[in-house]
Design goal:
homodimer; 408 residues; mainly alpha; 18 helices; globular
Amino acid sequence: MCDTAGRLVNMLLSAAPNVDILLTLFVMMAAAKVLAEIFERLRQPAIVGEILAGVLIGPSVLNWVTPSEITNALAEVGVIFLLFTVGLETKPVNIFRVGKLAIIVAILGVAAPFVAGYFLLLAWGGTVVESLFIGTALVATSVGITARVLAGMGVLDARASRIILGAAVIDDILGLLILALVASAAAGRIDYLEIGLTASLAIAFTILVMLVGAPAITRLAPRIEALRISQSLFVFGLLLCLGLSVAATYIGVAAIIGAFLAGMALADATEGNETLRKQMNGVTEFLVPFFLVNIGMQLRLDVFREPAVIALVLMITLVAALTKLLGCGLGAISLGWRRAAQVGVGMIPRGEVGIVVAQIGLSLAVITDALFGVVLFMSVATTLIAPPFLKLLFASETAAQERGAAPH
Amino acid sequence: MCDTAGRLVNMLLSAAPNVDILLTLFVMMAAAKVLAEIFERLRQPAIVGEILAGVLIGPSVLNWVTPSEITNALAEVGVIFLLFTVGLETKPVNIFRVGKLAIIVAILGVAAPFVAGYFLLLAWGGTVVESLFIGTALVATSVGITARVLAGMGVLDARASRIILGAAVIDDILGLLILALVASAAAGRIDYLEIGLTASLAIAFTILVMLVGAPAITRLAPRIEALRISQSLFVFGLLLCLGLSVAATYIGVAAIIGAFLAGMALADATEGNETLRKQMNGVTEFLVPFFLVNIGMQLRLDVFREPAVIALVLMITLVAALTKLLGCGLGAISLGWRRAAQVGVGMIPRGEVGIVVAQIGLSLAVITDALFGVVLFMSVATTLIAPPFLKLLFASETAAQERGAAPH
């Protein structure tokens, strides 16, 4: 009897393999939200709980869920929509207004970790190529994590927040160029013309979407709303988000930058459209936990098995945090110590961007498996360090925000 | 120069394979919505356009996108949320009120296609096992398609709609039992005790969620809303939807039935909660196009290359449509001709359920590749036939609905 049942169940499962997917999604979402609730009760950021949920259920600890093509895809779509909804709350003019400062913050925040990472690995005994690659891996900023914390606190519009968002876009372009340089140096030949072309394209794309795209969409919006399909502006937003993400990757920038620009381009046209914002919020809230849990699942604790690597992983993580804090903080020092600290801490998380750089290094065979594990740990650890400090540093803005919202 | 660029692009793409995924999603969503708009302008149901978009971009015609593990996963999650949001609009009491009629509709709507399909294939020269399996494939109803059309017209609460929803749940349980019987007959041994146990479990699960789950959740809702995590009731809804879908498959019912029951269980607790409904609507509207396009992508036009199969595929499709129309219509004839026709047409689409049965048949090696293609065609064709007729048949309810909403 049990035999028949077993055969039937296996048959049904093998014909409908997506049952496993639903179970995976349920476990990821449930773990994320249980740990988020626990962390909220401990007065810690929910986001840290959600990433740690990934560490817990992932290969490092319980091994209930392993990163797969599907969890990676969901995570990718999740971070895209995260940046898209952040973009929806950001007007291009507010980013241009902090443009100069954002450029300085980005440049110092790229230079400091790159140089420090390079020399640290050289001193540890790495080759020149390995050291260049580790420097590159320390450059990447994962703005999604910071944006999520700031959005949750309602301080996305604070001056430091806008500098972080602007600097993150520039940071991504610079990071891409350094990656292209280092990767072609590793391959033996640097084509400056090609890299110059990529740089120009990336910058032109960003400025074009902000300057031309946003007003064009604002003019076009009534026509889109007049289409026959239901919820046409929401559908247009989804397509713009996916489309500019794809375009960004073809041009050479990260998909999240395209999604962020798509959100900004749509910000004016959808101002006050509560239904659209709630629908977009639903999509984002559904998808983001998979992004956060998937980051946590990447962590490999086996780097701690080799004593020689333990010192390195701790030092690289420390250097990764301090160089962004000091580099970006120095860039924003004209705004005073507190805001400089806000900007510096906001740029610390490396998250999925650091993980992607590590994967490129591994696939090019320029870093060893041990170094790959080191970069993964650094990426996850910097992502966990920043949110509690962000919460503290933005506490007075949150309080002001709440007083503003409820003035009695 | 181009060589370096090509290498770099390949490198970036291979390290970040999800770029392809974003492009796939963009193409699927864009094709679905362009065809939906065209169909709306031709006064045809948008849903037909979205399924035909899948036929167009899929392997049958342009071959831009092929069904993959990821598109299947998105489609599965999409249909789950579709049924979940339909459940949210459905109170258990309204289904119980039409319960007896729904049972008669389901039984006649299962018996007629099974018997007709069995004898049709026997007459065509099929083996007994093949004929049993084709009968089983004709039994499955894909309630998602009909529910989507009815929800779009705002007539989910019409009497015929409630009968369709109730009958679809019973239909799914009956279909599961027939599948278990046929599959174990094909394997050579039928364990009636085991099958009886599965049936009891499925029925107990359904009734338990409706009778006990719904009031329990309504009582629990204030506590859930009091949790610290943001949007806790929305998160709970997501978890309930995923969790009951998984539970349903473990018990042996389709995941969509679990999702529909989850929605119903939450209907009372979230009545009037516009924010939650808009968030859920956002998730559903984002995911459903992938479900519809994925159905269209399953179509294989190569069944039309073999002249001997052409007659069969057309006959089976015709029989599939007519037996549901007449069988279910007869079950609801006490409500008059028009309502009987509404119910009959509403049960015609086989959609993804027919496709899953075909896949099980193929994996058990009880049907040939040609018969597999026939069932796929029947599944997609019945799904395309029903919506235009539903639109016509429910026209007066829609008009009444619109008069009610705008009484001047």
